[in-house]
Please model this.
Amino acid sequence: MFRRSVVKEWFIIVLLCCLSGTVHAQDAVRVTVLPFEINAIEGRDYLQEKLPAVIKTFLDEEGATVVDPQIPRGTPWAAVTRKTGGIRRFGIDRGADYVIWGSLTRVGQKISIDAKMISSMGTERPSVFFTEGRGIEDLSTTVRELVREFSLKLFKKERVAKVGIKGNRRIESDAIREVIKTGPGDVFLAKSLSGDLKAVYKMGYFDDIRIDAEESPDGKIITFNVREKPTIRRIRITGNRIYEDDEVKENLNLKTGSILNIYDIQSNIRRIESLYKDKNYHNVRVAYNTEPLENNQADLEFVIEEGEKVRIKSISFIGNQAFSNEDLKDLIKSSEKGIWSWLTSSGELNREDLNQDAARLTAFYHNNGYIEAKVGEPEIDYEGNWIFISMKIDEGPRYRIGNVAVAGDLIMPEKELLGRLKITREEYYSREIVRSDTLKLTDLYSDEGYAYADIAPKIDRQANRLVVDLTYTVKKGKQVYFEKIMISGNTKTRDKVIRRQLRVYEQGLYSGQRLKRGVRNLHRLDYFEDIKVNTVPGSADDQMVLKIDVSEKPTGTFSFGGGYSSEDNLFAMASISQRNLFGRGQTLQLKAELGGSTTRFTTSFTEPWLFDIPLSAGFDLYNWEREYDTYDRDSVGGAIRFGYPVIDYTRAYLTYRYDISDIRNVTDDASDEVQDLEGENTTSSVTGMLKYDSRDKAFNPTEGGSHNISIEYAGLGGDIAFTKYTGEAGQYFPLFWGTVGFVHAKGGYVRENSGGKLPDYEKFYLGGINSLRGFDWREISLRDEDDAEIGGYKFVQFNVEYIVPLIKEAGLVGVLFFDTGNVFDKSEDVRWDDLRESAGFGFRWYSPMGPIRIEYGYILDRKDNEESGRWEFAMGSAF
Model:
């Protein structure tokens, strides 16, 4: 139905165009214009010459052929026509079908034109015309109106009296009239109607359009008779199995109620095919069916033949000699179909990845000395269900590094600058290393205040020696100072809390490194949803304005929940905390935790900048009841702590702790050391710690390290006296594809001081989710002479993790790990061959309710009385 409609539409358009051309050719007439009589005091000569020229121009536009009257300038035309036998005879002699003459009268600013036109071959009286205008400047408009009246007689044209529209039901008549240019009072022309027909068809709403013309006393009555295309009642998708119906329909721009248009249907077929080709179903075929219904409606059905998924059969390289095909395949993201393609998606074509593969190969060659290497666009061939990809490579020669120099504005000796460049230690040219060295020099200059330093590497190829000479040209410009630091967006956080983290100051010298560090400090505060940093020129070319725009997020929380951990079993927790108290950056927390083996109440407060210097101070108060395997411990105590930055990322801490512990419910199988502790024990200790923390974020870090060493001395009064040394190092480093590696080591040593006791709960145990996974909590311990469990005087612990992001936006990661470690007696040396080992896997999710961990550890050196492994589960705030 639609194909017949299209053919019919174009047939009508072509017919009208032909008709228009024919009428125009037949209506061509020859006209001569006699000089008009000019009745004017001013401008007579101008009008005498201008008027016939304007009339001639407009007659030409109307399609008439204007014949030169051949009357000498200044000769009265009346005398000429009398001599030749009258006006009709004059026209015949000149070969003109019509003769036009008349007069123009100017009175003040108004002009009026009286004109007559007579047929050279007829006998009828002359036709009389009259028009007037406002002045000479309006002459063209006045003459155009007059010539249109001439045209009606010359070409026997009729005017349009009315334009009507019939047959439309949904499309409003006014919308159709907007595209029709012919209107009442216009000349009735087939050419104009042809254009109107095309315009109405172009609206896309009609199956058929017919134009009728009727005679009336006032002219032609034009009627556009239209037949509207059906509307879509329902769209059906059949044959699809890869995509659901809704997924296909989401990609269509045809909806229920749309006009059933063949062009729109074809466009949507291409959309469906493109959707499938994005998933490598390149053999997909899409057809359509329509089912006519009542009320000018129709159902539309897209019939899909999906075909089989097309995969990459082979990837070949043409022209490579320095590197094998296998070497190059390892560099690109696209891959050939493998045995495990159903799991790994190998062999699937991703055009974006493929286009980037060419760039990856080019970069690889340029980074290995092939500075002239070129990689062509990948060529893709489809054969059945297979894809064959080939890439042309022009390697060119390999260039070594020649002379390297730094020239221009040097802020230190050239030799020292060269010593900081990596390219000087390379044998072959590398574009990536040159770029990295350029950034390194830029950062070096920016740290000295040269914010706009321009450093450009100049590459000089010595083709005859296959050597590249490099010169880094430096234009340092002026040293730049921070004129102002403008902070916005902070409705709660005080300006000084933000400024003290920035490491740069107003009127201070610009430093790119300190600015980056300051922004990182702001992120680590975790007070802000977003931080935008912008630098703009200041009032002089050596001034800069730093703009910090922050978007705050809630820092006060009330949480009530629970969880489970292998240490405490089930527990419930409630806490109130504010990490940015009164916008001063202070932290206050009240927390209660009730568990199967632990009851804990804590209150803590921290002021990070005491006396407006980076001296942190705080206190902790706690009441802690804990059940151990052979005794219970009830503790009441508190601590006062101070911290101060010493070097980059490093703070020194000093803490005084006072604790009163009541040891009770001691079992018969408890060790002698535990039984000696029964009753009340007082600890008064001081701890010094040096801590380095450069992690990019506190939770799920991807890079940076957290290391510390500490010494605790107990014996400043009380019953307990010991000295404990501990050290810990943990480093995160990004790997490939967004994965992260983590290595962790921890160790400690404790000894009893004279005049006091070393309690068992201050000794070392291992096992559990936070030390050696797969072992039960505190399972790794020592045994006394009675085979009772006791803690160790020494311990070492090592953990290696490989962290894989699974759902990055949700904070879900997978982890593979290896743990090893053990505890030792005070008389023992650390024996590396006695370390216990476990390995396993797990999942971690930083959920809205808090972090969740589920991990399985398998004991690699299991003993007879031990299980092979165990699941470790923790949620809530247990870690």
